[in-house]
Specification:
- This protein has a single domain, classed as Transcription Regulator spoIIAA.
- Helices cover 42% and strands 33% of the residues.
- A 5-stranded mixed β-sheet has the order 1-2-3-4-5.
């Protein structure tokens, strides 16, 4: 049994929905994260994914980010990933995902102060 846990919250700021993920996105939480992400992207034209509270992401989590990014592109919606730091940011950069994804240092870079 894994101790992996992921939590979601969302709020609206202007015409953006801010979707915050905290905890870990790994093999045990990726399906739940993808399902929630698909709902949010489907129902909103501008999504800012706040990863500032995310502590861990595995290759399964990276796959979810790619799926959601592609979904947003296919539907001509905006999907920005914000605030990744520490190990999570290192994984995104080391895997080359920083080239494929719309990564931003902070939420305010996308939705304003």
């Amino acid at each position: 049994m894994s101790n992996s846990k992921v939590n979601f919250s969302s709020e609206t700021k202007g015409d953006w929905i801010i979707w915050t993920i905290s905890g870990s996105v790994d093999m045990t939480t990726a399906a739940e994260t993808e399902k929630k992400g698909r709902e949010i992207v489907e129902n909103n034209s501008k999504v800012a994914l706040d990863m500032s509270q995310l502590e861990y992401i595995s290759s399964a989590g990276l796959r979810v980010l790619l799926i959601l990014t592609q979904m947003a592109e296919d539907e001509e919606k905006e999907f920005a990933i914000c605030g990744a730091k520490g190990d999570v940011k290192d994984v995104l950069e080391d895997s080359g995902m920083d080239v494929l994804l719309n990564l931003n240092d902070s939420l305010s870079d996308v939705v304003g102060g």
